[in-house]
């Protein structure tokens, strides 16, 4: 798993004017919160250039990050990014402190594997992805890089759902905690136009 490190400094200035001044200096205002009850939210500033580099890696959003705040390290996850509505600019970043035994809700990628080994694939069927992420609940020290969906046994016409994902120990899918009605489709096997799967 990639080790993402974010350098940050605490800031005292608040308000829109202060945030504009920070962004003019290629700094992004943010806040870090959560963790132990005696830990208060802290307003921070991070380097825009450094953050943008890390945002290019999709696993950034589903990883435990190391936040170096005024030289002291703490583990965090990215909780929210406020983006400009029409420009590729991050306006504000929210980070949540975590410990190894923290229960966290976080969105991770779905990795569809082994379709080429399936009988459906060998019969010229294709697989269409409907959903490429899932929100999970787990301890921070059990966070997977992603969830693997094994398509070895995929059949023609089959629709796969969240409940078809094999989960690592200690990991739950948030939607399934709400009941069977929330068992969303994540992909399906289909025959391309002009082809007949199974022929």
From TrEMBL:
Any Pfam family hit: Ribosomal_L25p
GO-annotated cellular components: ribosome
Gene3D superfamilies tied to this protein: Ribosomal protein L25, beta domain, Ribosomal Protein L25, Chain P
Alphabetical UniProt keywords: Ribonucleoprotein, Ribosomal protein, RNA-binding, rRNA-binding
Coiled coil: none
Start and end residues of each Large ribosomal subunit protein bL25 L25 domain: 6-95
Family designation: Belongs to the bacterial ribosomal protein bL25 family. CTC subfamily.
Task performed by this protein: This is one of the proteins that binds to the 5S RNA in the ribosome where it forms part of the central protuberance.
Protein name: Large ribosomal subunit protein bL25
Species, as recorded: Marinobacterium aestuariivivens
């Amino acid at each position: 798993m990639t080790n993402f490190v974010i350098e940050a400094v605490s800031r005292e200035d608040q308000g829109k004017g202060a945030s504009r001044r920070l962004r003019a200096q290629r700094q992004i205002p943010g806040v870090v919160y959560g963790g132990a009850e005696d830990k208060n939210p802290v307003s921070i500033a991070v380097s825009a250039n450094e953050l943008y580099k890390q945002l290019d890696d999709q696993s950034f959003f589903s990883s435990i990050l190391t936040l170096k705040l005024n030289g002291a390290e703490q583990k965090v996850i990215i909780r929210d990014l406020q983006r400009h509505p029409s420009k590729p600019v991050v306006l504000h970043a929210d980070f949540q402190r975590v410990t190894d035994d923290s229960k966290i809700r976080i969105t991770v990628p779905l990795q569809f594997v082994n379709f080429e080994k399936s009988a459906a694939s060998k019969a010229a069927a294709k697989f269409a992805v409907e959903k490429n992420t899932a929100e999970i609940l787990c301890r921070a020290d059990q966070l997977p890089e992603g969830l693997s969906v094994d398509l070895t046994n995929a059949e023609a016409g089959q629709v796969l759902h969240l409940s078809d994902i094999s989960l690592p120990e200690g990991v739950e899918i948030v939607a399934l905690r709400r009941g069977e009605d929330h068992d969303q489709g994540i992909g399906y096997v289909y025959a391309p136009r002009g082809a007949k799967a199974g022929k």
